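If you are new to this repository, start here. Below is one unmodified record pulled from the training split, so you can see the exact layout before writing a loader.
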Amino acid sequence: MEARRNRFEPNIEELERRKKLIQEKMVEENISLIIATAPQPLTAGYVRYISGFAVDFTYISPNSVLLSADGETYMITTGNPNNPFNNQQPYILPPTIEPGVKYLMKDVYYPAVNFSLENECKLFENTIKHTNAKKVGLVGLANFSNVTMDYLKSSCPDVEFVDFTEKIDEIKSVKSSIEIEYIKKTIAMMEKIMQAVPSILREGIYEWEIGAKLTRLANDLGSENPLVFITSGKQGTKISSAPSFYQNRQIESEDQIRVELRMSGPGGYFGSICRDYIFDSEPEDNLSEAVKKATEFQEQIISMIKPNTKVSKLQSELNSLINTKNKNGNRFEYKVFGQGYDLVERPLVVDKEIMDIKQNMVIAVKVFVQTPNAEVSIIDDFLIKDTGNILLSSIPHTIVVK
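And here is the target side for that same chain:
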């Protein structure tokens, strides 16, 4: 079989590092096999983290990875049926495609073809029985369908299925030096895209046209999953982010345009940047003041995020901060979440999060500020360090005028 030409080679050293850490957790929990599945690219972080396999938008069926305690990796995807366990020579993927993946199992199954779903389930069953697994860890429970779980519990009655997501999250949330370099490349890519925005703006252009041009640029620069949110309106009016099918307003003189990028770069790691622009005018004083308030708010938040801080404690402090700011017609909001192979991953600053903040996490801090006469939103990624958190973007917190 001829090897596919991989545009961005996965890092073998990084894959082996993860596999070793995951296997150690499996031994601790007496788990002989773990399974992660991805219904679509934006929820494929666990699959890629374990296997290096990049799920993109050309896939219309779930793709899954299974890792045994002895280090063997198995992939399940849709395609012409293939059962390597019945062959004399296992079907081995070329290292230039998915390094470390030993078996590839395929059958025809599509979510919209109900009767085909059992085909996927049988591939899971075959792997469980091939490895003689007695305790199976499931990674990312939200990605598994009821059809899959009902089938496995019925066909493998002697197997214990447990939630193994927490153990993977403990590893996945803390980034290695190699991963941090990939994330920096993503941020650098998004900076180039943001710098191109003024050259795109013109009288009468639709929001969706701006998004389409920025998406094309993102693809050219190596983005694997480019999400571009464009919204606009007159200064002083409410402008909320919206997906492309709602981006149908034409840009006019004195408009405020909000560009929010949430995309993965070369290698599949996500980042986020959001800034506001003004077309054919200068920003009003009220808007400039709102940007200043948003910047100060973001700085206050990131100063509170330190290694070994409990997220529950952090959220309580943030809510107290919000209460002191939400007065005199002002409204302050925040979202704080981890980023990596997933657009939003742990730690997520909400009530139920039990994870502590740790060094080398990458945290996105989104703030929204609405004053009586203006509103603005800012998003940036920060690398958490003992010596002080590092802002990964160099795009200024100022209103750019076109």
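Two things worth knowing about this chain: The chain has two domains: 12-172, 177-401. The first helix runs from residue 12 to 28.
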